[in-house]
UniProtKB/TrEMBL annotation:
Taxonomic lineage of the native organism: Bacteria, Bacillati, Bacillota, Clostridia, Lutisporales
Organism: Lutispora saccharofermentans
Coiled coil: none
Family annotation (CDD domains): CheD
Signal sequence bounds: none
Name of the protein described by the UniProt record: Probable chemoreceptor glutamine deamidase CheD
C-alpha cells in the first residue's frame, strides 16, 4: 500500500516507490519534484525563496531553490538514485498579489521559477513538465511509481503533468 508523505513549506523529503509526495498551498513558492526514471526514487522540495546567498538567515537549506535542490539531489543519491536518470517537474511560482509597484523585489513567484530553472540547468536535470506562474495557488502530489505530477488548483481544475 502506497503512503503519501507530506512535504511542508521550506521542507523536503524523498521516497521509494510506490510512495507519493504531496505539498499544499504553493503560492509564490515552487514545488520541485525529482524522479529517477530507473529506480523510481523520488523527491520533492517546497522552496520559498530564490537564492540562499541573498538572505542572512539561510540555515534551512530547503527554503531556497539553490540549496534545496542540491540537498534533495544529494539525499536521493544516498538512497540509491542514479544521477544520470534524474528528471524534474516543477509547479508554483504564482504572483499571488497585485502590486502597483512593479519592482522585481515583489515578483517573488517569477524570481523563484527563474532560480529553480537555473539551478536545475546547472545540475543538468531536464524539466519534463511545468505548471508555473498565474495568480492562483496549487497543491501538488507526485507519484514515484508513475512519475506523474497531479496539480490541483482552486478555480482552475486539476491536471496531470
Amino acid at each position: 500500500m502506497a503512503e503519501v508523505i507530506k512535504v511542508g513549506m521550506a521542507d523536503l523529503n524523498c521516497v521509494y516507490p510506490p510512495d507519493a509526495l504531496i505539498t499544499l498551498g504553493l503560492g509564490s513558492c515552487v514545488g520541485i519534484c525529482l524522479h529517477d526514471r530507473e529506480t523510481k526514487i523520488s523527491g520533492m522540495v517546497h522552496i520559498m525563496l530564490p537564492y540562499s546567498h541573498q538572505i542572512k538567515n539561510n540555515s534551512n537549506l530547503a527554503k531556497f531553490a539553490d540549496t534545496g535542490i542540491a540537498k534533495l539531489l544529494d539525499d536521493m543519491l544516498k538512497m540509491g538514485a542514479k544521477r544520470s536518470k534524474i528528471v524534474s517537474k516543477v509547479a508554483g511560482g504564482a504572483q499571488m498579489f497585485n502590486f502597483n509597484d512593479t519592482s522585481d523585489i515583489m515578483r517573488i513567484g517569477a524570481r523563484n521559477v527563474v532560480a529553480v530553472k537555473e539551478t536545475l540547468k546547472n545540475f543538468n536535470i531536464p524539466i519534463l513538465a511545468e505548471d508555473t506562474g498565474g495568480s492562483y495557488g496549487r497543491t501538488i502530489e507526485f507519484s514515484s511509481d508513475t512519475g506523474l505530477l497531479l496539480v490541483k488548483t482552486i478555480g482552475h481544475g486539476i491536471k496531470q503533468i
